[in-house]
Fold:
Amino acid sequence: SQTIHQWPATLVQPVGSPLSLECTVEGTSNPNLYWYRQAAGRGLQLLFYSVGIGQISSEVPQNLSASRPQDRQFILSSKKLLLSDSGFYLCAWSAGRQNTEAFFGQGTRLTVV
Amino acid sequence: GDSVTQMEGPVTLSEEACLTINCTYTATGYPSLFWYVQYPGEGLQLLLKATKADDKGSNKGFEATYRKETTSFHLEKGSVQVSDSAVYFCALSGSGNTGKLIFGQGTTLQVKP
Structure:
C-alpha cells in the first residue's frame, strides 16, 4: 500500500533563517505531488504541484520554492523565512489521473518567531 | 474559476444529534467531489467521494450525494459521536490531469457528550 511521510512534525524557526521540509511517498511510482498551506482557522491553499521529476508549478507568488529531485521526493524550501510563512504545511500525492483523490501527509506545524 | 463554498462554522452538536454540513460548488466540466476530515494536529483523511451526478459516497456513517442540479454535495450523518469532532473540508477535482483539488474553507464540528 502507499504511504506518505512528511517531516519534521513541528518546527520553530527565527525570521530570516532557511527552511527545508521534506516529503516522500512509498508504494507508487510517478505520483503527482503537492504542497498545501493551511493558515490558522482557514482552508487549504495550494502552493506548488509537480507532475514529474524537476517539474514544478507554482500556484501563488511567495517566499517559498519547491523541488522534486527524485520521483517520490518533494521538498519545500525558503532562503529567508518571514513571519507570514507560519502555518501548517501539508504534502499530498495523487495518481495523476483526472478526478482522482489526493492523499495527505501528517503535516508540519511551522512557527516563525 | 472553480470554487467550493461550505457553511460557516463552528457547528456544535450534542452526541447522537443529526449532522448536515452544506457544500456547494462552481465548476466547469464534470468534477469529482470529496469530503476530507482533519482531526486536531493531523493531516487530512479522505472521508468519502463521488465521481458523477447522483452518486452517493458513504463511509463511517457519513453520506453525501452529488447533486448536479443544485451543484451541491452536503455531508450528513444521522447520529454523531464525540469522536466525530474535527474539521471537515469539501473539495472538488480541478480540470486537467494535474490532480489539483480545490477546497472549501472547512467547517469545524464539535460534538459534546
Summary: The mean pLDDT of chain B is 93. The first strand of chain B starts at residue 3 and ends at 6. The interface with chain A takes residues 30-32, 34, 36, 41-46, 49, 51, 89, 93, 95-101, 103-106 of chain B (CB under 8 Å). The CA atoms of residues 34 and 71 of chain B lie 13 Å apart.
